[in-house]
Amino acid sequence: MATITKKELIDRITKKTQCKHITAKEIVQQFLDEIASELGKGNRLEFRDFGVFKVQERAARTAQNPRTLEKVQVPAKRTVKFKMGRIMRERMNEHTTE
Fold first, then answer.
1. Residue ranges of domains in the chain, CATH in brackets
2. pTM for the complete prediction?
């Protein structure tokens, strides 16, 4: 499994769209900033057929350190959940190894 970086994605977009590298970089960064900003506000982001990002609240809980068996309080926190859309699901299943 390969790891694709933001720079590599920007390079691909630049090559396919023939726009300047700096322009593509600014657009991608602004897009990511907007996603983070909206999720930070607790909003749900829906991209039709691609997927949905939504904020999920995790309640505070008591956990246990496996090494010392000491009880530890874990505070409540917010996480992001992603649910795949139709096109994403189809593309994921295209590349399965047999």
1. 6-94 (4.10.520.10)
2. 0.76
